[in-house]
Amino acid sequence: MTSRIRVSAVSYTNTKPFIYGLQHNPIQNQIDLSLDTPSDCAQKLIDNKVDIGLIPVAAILNLPYWQIVSDYCIGAIGAVNSVFIFSNCPIEEANIIQLDPESRSSNNLAKVLLKNYWKVNPQQIINAADYAKSIDIKTAFVQIGDRTFGKKNQFPYVYDLAETWQKLTGLPFVFAAWIANKPINPEFMKAFNTALKAGLDARENVLAELPSYAGFDLRDYLYHKLDFNLTDDKKEALNRFLEYIKEL
Ligand SMILES: C=C(O[C@@H]1C=C(C(=O)O)C=C[C@H]1O)C(=O)O
Questions:
Q1: Cα(1) to centroid of ligand 1, in Å?
Q2: Helices in 27-181 by DSSP H: which ranges?
């Protein structure tokens, strides 16, 4: 028997439809699936501990070989509602931006937007000891994923980074895509893609299994805020984003 393809996927709610699709499909017998934070998905693919990852697209720049293996992604057209800068002062007045240790794409997106949209240059800190807890009014923070659910009303200044990216470029955004670090058998890729699509088509079942979060509309999130199709304009956005990162 040939060995299983090792796959790392994001452990957040945004990926639950994909996980559902993979786990309700015969392809589950061909893969070893692990669920990780986005930054760990990226590191595992870079370190060749997995063959395919739903990796933050910013990490593509750290891969000597990479190949997109699916028509689906974690993306958004306008506001995504789970990737924010939370701040106690207007962003233009912040002295420090704490980055999210679980993120690669959104930390870079924040840097790109600070430079090119808000045109400011606050100090940027990763792994801050008081991450997301600072009481300094001039300290803001980037946060992604389920930890942001319901937090939008807790801060006086809240910036949705996919929405701000759209204001800067007119484009949608891709946070994470299914990327391989080696050539993958086309038959497998086709079956993998089919399983992911089946998961998206089963979002009602996924919603029925999920807990509810106070102050957060999960149905709206999975159907309308996230956009899972890796369309040509999202690929254009991906390339544009990588160019912006290189210029930081
Ligand atoms: C929309 C999101 O997209 C994500 C953000 C990522 C990042 O910032 O590196 C990576 C994967 C996705 O989980 C989110 O996590 O809320």
A1: 35
A2: 38-46, 105-116, 161-169
* Backbone angles phi and psi of 58, in degrees to 5: -60, -30
CATH number of 222's domain: 3.40.190.10
**pLDDT (0 to 100) of residue 2:** 65
Same domain, 15 and 34: yes
Query: Could you read off the pLDDT of 174-208 as tens digits, one per residue?
Result: 999 999 999 999 999 999 999 999 999 999 999 99
The alpha carbon of 42 and the centre of ligand 1 are apart by a number of angstroms equal to: 11
The label of the residue with tokens 């089946």 reads 198
Of 13, 37, 80, 103, the residue with max ligand 1 atoms within 8 A of its CB, to mutate for a pocket test, comes to 103
Last residue of one domain, picked from the residues 169, 195, 211? 169
Query: Which pair of structure tokens corresponds to residue 191?
Result: 């079956």
Is the separation of the CB atoms in 39 and 101 below 8 Å? Answer: yes
* Ligand 1 pocket list (CB less than 6 A): 10, 12, 14, 38, 56, 74, 80, 82-83, 103-106, 144-145, 175-176
Residue 104 · residue 39 · CB < 8 Å: yes
Residue nearest to atom 4 of ligand 1 (CA): 175
Which one of 108, 140, 169 terminates a domain?
169
Domain count for the chain, please give it. 2
